[in-house]
Amino acid sequence: MTELSLQKIEAIAPDQASLQAARKLMKPGIWSGLSTASAGLVWGECQGSGAAPYRVVISEPDSGYKCTCPSRKFPCKHSLALMWMRVEGKAAFADAAPPAWVQDWLRRRRPAAKSDAGDEAADESAPRPAKNIALTASEEAATVDPISEARAAAARERSRLERESSVTAGMDDLDQWLADQIDMGIAAFAANPGKACRLIAQRLVDAKAGGLANRLDELPGYLYTLPDAMRPVAAIKELGQLHLLAEAWRRQDSLDPELRADLRREIGWSLTREALLDDRSALRTTGTWRIFATIEEAQQDRLRRFETWMWRESPGDGPRFAVLIDFVPLAAGGARNPWLKGERLEATLVFYPSPLALRAIIGNMEGSAQACHQEMQLPDSGLEAAWASWESALALKPWLRVWPLQFRGTQVRRSGQQYYLCSTQTAIALPILRPQAEMVAPLLCVERVDGFALWDGSWIRMCLGQTQLGFWGMP
């Protein structure tokens, strides 16, 4: 029988603020892998603001706990929330064998000293901060004041209108900037885009269009990766997409809701994880997902961007590809993407509103991701079908920048110093990024390559390949 109780949770909580924070985490939607085993062991994973969820385990008999979050309060809000959900039955807990990380905690921990319910291992004469679980509900109810809510709603509406006006002014400046680049000559711009892009990017930051600002900051680096002869054409394409976004902004009221939501997110509006999870209309797809690419990039806004690209192995309706995008401050130092290429996971992904479902978050995950070297059962489709999927995606989302390609029966060939991914059936040959030349050179020796790549309209980034000799691109 469990020895946990609301009174015990109240007693071990560091302060009232921790209890209040724990109450907000008592939502089964942000937890995954909730399980229990004999001897009162309970564990689960709680999705925080980062890419990887926090792992939480508690021991009911002695109120022991462990969480991977960086909180300096013990127990943290995640541990308290798991205990609280267990006591009140707020979520279903499956019977399961403890995973490796739970077993490791059991081996290392020292059981907490048990005490009678009357003293809770504390000196009743010692002063303790006031803590009351019941008060958290009353505090939550007290915050709902009609007058204050109305004022807050009016303030939010004013802020929204001010930002809309500011973004529109920024779009006018962007149009003028684009016209100036045309007047001065695209060849001149493509030869030295850094200073020009930084100036307009800063203006767009001031106009609260941070998404477009980041896109402009990334443009010079992208152009410099191209041969000199290709830069003007690539510059025209990129500047044309910026013009398209500016025009779409002015006509957003006439766009379909999903395309409008995608447009605003591209410009800089954000949708919180909590809001997306609470959106019942959001597309959800459950299945077995294989990670085929992880990309890390430092941005001008002092954030490190992590992209994790996935392919759904299991059959069924819904998107076959997804990308998780997370950000951490550069000041965080050696932060790394918690996912590894080749890993497989069982999860439900929730997709952001868009006519082209691609970006997603993990809504629920069964267990943890596991390294997998089993052969991938890829659909029997070649580079022609992959190219057709790119064209269809571009028709749905005209400002699309990168699209995942899945292919079978291709070959890697070389012409001079340039490598290409080639179809064995038709004349399709896509140029591979030049920095990958040394990496893809061994693929010249294999008869065929099946796998995944990312295509940006000009270059292909090889991600994960399957050959008769084994996997290519696995860590």
Pattern of helices and strands: HHEEEEHEHHHHHHHHHEEEEEHEEEHEEE
Structural class: alpha+beta
* First and last CA, distance: 46 Å
Poorly predicted parts: 113-127
Q: Whole-number radius of gyration? A: 26 Å
Instruction: Round the mean pLDDT to the nearest integer and report it.
Output: 87
What is the strand content?
Answer: 25-35%
- Biggest sheet: strands, sense, closure? 6 strands, antiparallel
Which strand order do you get reading across the main beta sheet?
A: 13-12-11-14-15-16
Number of helices: 14
What would you call the shape?
globular
Task: Specify the helix fraction band.
Answer: 25-40%
Overall number of strands: 16
Return the domain count. 4
Question: Which keywords apply here?
Answer:
alpha+beta, OB fold (Dihydrolipoamide Acetyltransferase, E2P), 5-stranded mixed sheet, 16 strands
